[in-house]
User: Which sequence fits this backbone?
């Protein structure tokens, strides 16, 4: 069982609300990721961090923002939720190793529905 | 495009049969990883194969890598209903500060 946790598991929220999706890992990994995935579709990398105070946008443009103040915590925030933000959001972490990319551990995901 | 492309998009087999999924990619790689995703859940790492390896085994899983063809395959032998999931490959270019990219995956259904 991976030590990476996402909360909430499900969220239904009204348009215009501010939301924060939480992601925490206890493995001390430097690298953390946020992916967005619609049912049956590919995972889109939306945010990436390779350490404290480092964040980068992924290949898919997203109106969300992230922060990395502590190694273990990588929250994602939407200032004003819209129905187009409805999706599943997956958080993952991995460590630097002999290979530039090592095994990534994923949280269970947050299913966000904006009504 | 930095992600792999899995083929077929969907595969349906009976228990006990073997399942083969393929992954093609476009750039040179440092390693390639395979992941599994049960419906509505996060991905789980299955196996990593380095660019200097041609084949790797883990239990009922066998992964091959052909860097000259820029392709990899995942074979699941003696499949079980519990193997029903989506399978993703993630080619690692080793040059983008460790970002992992995923495609659409192969949806495998194993019927009892």
Assistant:
């Amino acid at each position: 069982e991976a030590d990476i946790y996402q909360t909430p598991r499900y969220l239904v929220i009204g348009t215009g609300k501010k939301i924060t999706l939480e992601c925490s890992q206890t493995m001390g990994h430097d690298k953390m990721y946020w992916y967005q995935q619609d049912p049956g579709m590919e995972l889109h990398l939306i945010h990436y961090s390779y350490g404290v105070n480092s964040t980068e946008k992924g290949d898919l443009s997203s109106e969300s923002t992230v922060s990395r103040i502590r190694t273990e915590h990588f929250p994602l925030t939407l200032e004003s939720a819209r129905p187009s933000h409805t999706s599943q959001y997956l958080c993952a972490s991995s460590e630097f190793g002999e290979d530039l990319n090592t095994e990534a551990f994923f949280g269970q995901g947050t299913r966000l529905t904006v009504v | 495009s930095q992600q792999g492309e899995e083929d077929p998009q969907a595969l349906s087999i009976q228990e006990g049969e073997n399942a083969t999924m393929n992954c093609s990619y476009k750039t040179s790689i440092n390693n390639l990883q395979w992941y599994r995703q049960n419906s509505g859940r996060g991905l789980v790492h299955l196996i990593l194969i380095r660019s200097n390896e041609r084949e790797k085994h883990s239990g009922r899983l066998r992964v091959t890598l052909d860097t000259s063809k820029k392709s990899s395959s995942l074979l699941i032998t003696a499949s079980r209903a519990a193997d029903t999931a989506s399978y993703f490959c993630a080619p690692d270019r080793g040059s983008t500060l460790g970002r992992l990219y995923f495609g659409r995956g192969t949806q495998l259904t194993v019927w009892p």
Notes: Chain A has a mean pLDDT of 91. Chain A touches chain B at residues 2, 6, 31, 33, 35, 40-43, 45, 48, 50, 56, 58-59, 88, 90, 92, 94, 96, 99-109, 111 (CB under 8 Å).
